[in-house]
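for the recovery benchmark. tokens below, seq after
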């Protein structure tokens, strides 16, 4: 894959080109274009547009990374990737060739903006595949072609990466005015529920990550359908009103989705473990917090045993 990075500016516009092959990155070219001080703004922009268009024509990149500083509306840096349709790419909304061809500056009719082609799809980095090189308090570090990505990952994603020569994670890129944060998930269902939770008023990415980290996505969906608000109130940062909003708003979105049940007589494993702890004197909230720290893939009996051991 060949990638062009653009660091735009009206006085000086920089660029760099890298090529990735067999997991290795190689720098191809770099430089900048300058415009004359005192020149009319539209002429400066036209100079930059022609230079970028020439660079794209000469190198035919697979992707472009653009720092959105032309617009001047705020200081936010946004990442937009246009990926060519090669039949093997991740589902990044493959409009790359068109987006690259339309690369330009916002606010001018003759200089169309790449943001318009990609703004409606936030799945800029939808998946990472590489080697987990560190597990830090800030997140999991995944080495992809020599570049280390810091990913705030669910416990199941961390377990998936632990000891593996290579790991593939579903990801979500959260864009803030001062940062770009990647969140990682072991399976698509976790990511899907995470995104749905972000639509609930009062639920940010950290709280959404805490929710999907506590139990398998199927069990959380079942709790929503069964209006089990106690399941969510047990999570730090979630009060009664937020838990009720999660159930109310997401139950409507889940609609008639099938409720997952276990093969053990239709009894839900998490409720079996929770009820066992309640019988031992735990409150519902305390039982949920204790089970949140235990691997949800274990049997109910083993989860109870681990929760008691950690108490």
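predicted aa per position
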């Amino acid at each position: 894959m060949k990638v062009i990075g653009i660091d735009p500016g009206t006085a000086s516009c920089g660029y760099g080109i890298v090529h990735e092959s067999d997991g290795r990155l190689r720098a191809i070219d770099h430089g900048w274009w300058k415009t004359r001080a005192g020149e009319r703004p539209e002429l400066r922009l036209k100079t930059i547009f022609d230079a970028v268009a020439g660079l794209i024509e000469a190198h035919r990149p697979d992707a472009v990374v653009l720092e959105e500083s032309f617009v001047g509306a705020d200081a936010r840096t946004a990442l937009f990737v246009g990926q060519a349709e090669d039949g093997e790419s991740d589902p990044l909304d493959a409009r790359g060739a068109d987006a690259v061809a339309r690369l330009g500056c916002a606010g001018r009719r003759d200089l169309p903006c790449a943001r318009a082609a990609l703004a409606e799809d936030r799945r800029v980095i939808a998946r990472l595949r590489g080697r987990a090189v560190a597990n830090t308090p800030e997140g999991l570090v995944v080495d992809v072609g020599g570049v280390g990505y810091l990913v705030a990952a669910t416990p199941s994603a961390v377990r998936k990466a632990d000891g593996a020569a290579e790991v593939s994670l579903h990801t979500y890129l959260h864009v803030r005015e001062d940062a770009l944060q990647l969140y990682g998930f072991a399976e698509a269902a976790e990511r899907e529920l995470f995104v749905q939770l972000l639509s609930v008023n009062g639920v940010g990415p950290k709280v959404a990550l805490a929710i999907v980290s506590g139990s398998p996505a199927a069990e959380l969906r079942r709790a929503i359908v069964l209006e089990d608000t106690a399941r969510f109130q047990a999570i730090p940062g979630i009060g009664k009103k937020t838990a009720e909003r999660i159930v109310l708003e997401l139950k409507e979105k889940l609609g008639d989705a099938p409720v997952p049940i276990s093969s053990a007589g239709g009894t839900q494993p998490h409720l079996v473990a929770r009820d066992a702890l309640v019988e031992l004197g735990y409150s519902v909230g305390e039982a949920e917090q204790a089970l949140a720290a235990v691997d949800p893939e274990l049997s109910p009996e083993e989860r109870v045993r681990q929760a008691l051991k950690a108490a």
